[in-house]
Write a structure and sequence with these properties.
alpha+beta, 9-stranded antiparallel sheet, 9-stranded parallel sheet, 13 helices, 19% helix, globular
């Protein structure tokens, strides 16, 4: 068993292959957090904490005159509130008698085989051979108010998940306006924090800064996890780099408003917590109601950031993503958006399919503009009825004719949105978010349908099913093109409006669950203007997400670099797009665009008819390379060999058995009389010899890793290379 209870020391230890996580039933039943780090053997780590009389740190009420026992200094597993701990609270609740307080004490714990699940919420999964579950029940000292802490343990992956269930058993209703899924107190605050920030068309830029006194936070109030701040955070020692140092990763399995807080206290202790953003969050807990908080995936590495990323990649790829495509090769697709935008007919799409088939492309995806009055982005959303006049044929005929060309068929939808110029809005204007007496704000000329309402979800479910039942549709791109505001649910009374935003996310998950259950063989790709909802919660339903609306290969280097810290390559939607690029006008070689897109699900987004014969031949070669390298790229270990700010960006894939490796390099700065560039490979067997397929040269693994490899030199801007090494 990975989870062990020491009755004498009153410690609960979670041991994975390389890590230990420990908590202890401390004075007066306070559940202490004592350790998370490299694996240790059986030691009670509470010896690292000293009980002291600290000025202005209030002693616990039941400690009598002992001034050394204060919740303000004790490292807790779930923080208290308004009972002497002045640091950031975990759960903020007002009880039925009007008192604001939470003073949680240990009641019991339970250890079982298999992984817990969360009703209505995405979470990692695993059977009795893969995972274990620890449940720890805490109770308020004075009230019948309970918090059950949930821990999922994946011993071989060095992964621990955390969530919690919050229950009021008092006769009177309690009000909760802040809740975290997990909190962890470190005895030292000498750490840096990595956050992944950005904007539309430039998501998940890496930002590293040293934590200082007070609270450092990152979060979203956009109704989605957002382009601006991703719900993934790394804490690390100041000397941590790719192959060295201690680091902790926290990924929130939630797609709505979130808040991550890191607070350095007066004693230089660190409290880190992750939860639903408390702004506009207010939950009424009637007697007997159990509120489930979303899951956080946690991992620790004592060997640097690269190892931490590998641990997250393996966990997400194999135990969060689901369905037919989670580990299988996705079809090479071509999307018509940058080729035609709204200006297309069925015959135009068929002609694209005919040309694409000659090159080895396997799927045509029909993007925005095929339904209702959708000839521009100001109308039609919500009317999921094929525009046969525009297409010149029925959707069924279009699907059949594309398939006759040898391609599978995919389709774009944006179910969560509605245009005011639509039949749906004319019939049900109250289905869109709007505040009473106020004109709602528009994003991309559209409003947001309230998926927290069952009638809206049922309409969308029936509409989507009708589309997918029309013909043999193999792929759905599920888009969502604005941030959410004006959140108000007319079905809820005034005192429950603080639940409307969370109900929207639960409604989204419910709709996605129903669709994926009914169509298990359909590949679902998530999208929100690209990477505006690229989070672990969405990956439970869609095994890939369109990484960014910025398809420029050079800017994608930075976007995909930041994405790689948490999310595996198999989840990253990436295409070869038109040139000059439609977002920034950059001109980049076709080969380089292919190399960058191959660090993802791979496909095309351009007008084939405008390609030269030479380029078409290169597309054929790219597709063959993608198929050849697929297993290595999608399931191999990923290594960042450089940062994208350097003159070249290099990343590497290594098969789990260390038999094969693919090194990808893009030169981002053309220089006269440039120096030679040497890169050091990672992950190889130092005792083995490897043949580089292009040159035929053979190298010792240790030489490639510790001495390095001399990159080729070519004249020209944005040149790229793929180096394939095979053990001999």
């Amino acid at each position: 068993m990975a989870i062990c209870y020491d009755e004498n020391a009153k410690t609960i230890s979670i041991d994975t292959e390389h890590t230990t996580y420990q908590m202890k039933i401390g004075p007066y039943g306070v559940l202490l957090h004592t350790y998370y780090g490299k694996r240790i053997s059986g030691e009670d780590m509470s010896y690292l904490f000293r009980y002291s009389d600290i000025g202005f740190s209030t002693a616990m009420g039941d400690a009598g005159m002992d001034r050394t026992v204060s919740l303000d200094t004790m490292p807790q597993e779930m923080p208290s509130f308004n009972v002497g701990d002045y640091r950031a609270e975990g759960i903020r609740v007002q009880h039925g008698d009007g008192s604001y307080a939470l003073d949680l004490r240990y009641v019991s714990h339970d250890i079982t085989r298999g992984k817990y699940s969360l009703k209505g919420l995405p979470a990692m999964y695993g059977g009795s051979e893969t995972a274990e579950t620890l449940k720890v029940v805490l109770k308020d000292r004075a009230k019948e108010f309970y918090v059950t802490l949930l821990y999922g343990v994946y011993e071989e992956l060095d992964i621990i998940t955390r969530a919690c269930l919050i229950e009021n058993r008092e006769e009177k209703t309690a009000v909760m306006d802040k809740a975290v899924s997990m909190s962890m107190d470190f005895l030292t605050g000498d750490m840096d924090i990595y956050t992944f920030n950005g904007r539309h068309e430039m998501e998940r830029e890496v930002e590293r800064r040293k934590l200082g006194r007070g609270i450092t936070s990152v979060g979203s109030l956009r109704g989605t996890s957002s382009h601006q701040h991703n719900p993934f955070v790394i804490l690390c020692s100041s000397d941590t780099e790719e192959e060295y140092g201690e680091c902790y990763g926290f990924s929130y399995v939630y797609s709505g408003n979130f808040l991550a807080e890191a607070e350095i206290s007066q004693r230089d202790q660190l409290r880190f917590a992750m939860g639903i953003h408390p702004s506009r969050f207010r939950i009424l807990l009637e007697k007997g109601r159990v509120f489930a908080m979303p899951e956080v995936i946690m991992s620790y590495s004592g060997s640097g950031l690269g190892r931490l990323s590998i641990q997250f990649h393996r966990a997400i790829r194999n135990y969060l993503c689901r369905g037919k495509y989670k580990n299988s090769r996705r079809p090479v697709l071509i999307n018509n958006w940058e080729a035609t935008y709204f200006d297309f007919t069925g015959e135009k799409l068929i002609s694209i399919a005919e040309e694409a088939a000659k090159l080895g492309i396997e799927m045509l995806v029909m993007d925005d503009g095929w339904f209702g009055k959708r000839n521009l982005d100001e109308s039609g959303l919500g009317d999921w009825i094929p525009n046969e006049e525009k297409l010149g044929m029925s959707l069924k005929e279009l699907v059949e004719r594309v398939r006759e060309k040898g391609l599978a068929f995919g389709i774009w939808i944006e179910p969560e949105m509605v245009s005011e110029d639509s039949l749906l809005y004319q019939e049900h204007p109250d289905w869109a978010f709007a505040l009473p007496g106020r004109t709602p704000g528009r994003g991309r000329c559209q409003l947001v349908l309230d998926l927290g309402r069952e009638c809206v979800r049922e309409y969308l479910y029936q509409a989507i099913c009708k589309i997918l039942d029309t013909g043999d549709i193999s792929y759905v791109k599920w888009d969502m093109n604005r941030s959410i505001c004006d959140v108000y649910n007319p079905e809820l009374p005034p005192e429950q409006q603080g639940e409307a935003g969370h109900k929207y996310i639960l409604g989204l998950y419910d709709l996605l669950e129903r669709i994926t259950a009914r169509y298990p063989d359909v590949l679902l790709e998530g999208c929100s203007g690209g990477g505006g909802r690229f989070d672990a919660g969405m990956l439970y339903y869609s095994p890939q997400i369109w990484c960014s609306d910025d398809t420029d290969a050079i800017e994608r280097l930075k976007i995909q670099y930041g994405t790689s810290f948490c999310y595996p390559v198999s989840t990253v939607g990436s295409h070869v797009s038109a040139c000059p690029n439609h977002q920034n006008g950059r001109i980049t070689p076709l080969h380089t665009r292919g190399v960058v897109a191959m660090a993802g699900t791979f496909g095309y987004e351009l007008d084939i008819s405008k390609m030269s014969d030479q380029d078409k031949e290169e597309v054929k070669e790219q597709i063959e390379d993608y198929k050849k390298y697929f297993d290595l790229v999608q399931d191999g270990d990923y290594y960042r060999l450089t940062k994208p700010e350097e003159d070249f960006t290099v990343w590497q894939f290594v098969s789990r058995d260390r038999e094969k490796s693919l090194v990808n390099a893009v030169m981002t700065s053309a220089k006269a009389n440039a120096p030679d560039y040497i890169i050091r490979l990672k992950g190889l067997d130092p005792e083995s010899r490897y043949k580089e397929e292009g040159s035929g040269k053979i190298y010792q693994g240790s030489a490639l890793m510790w001495g390095g490899y001399l990159l080729p030199r070519e004249i020209g801007e944005y040149q790229s290379y793929q180096l394939y090494f095979v053990r001999v």
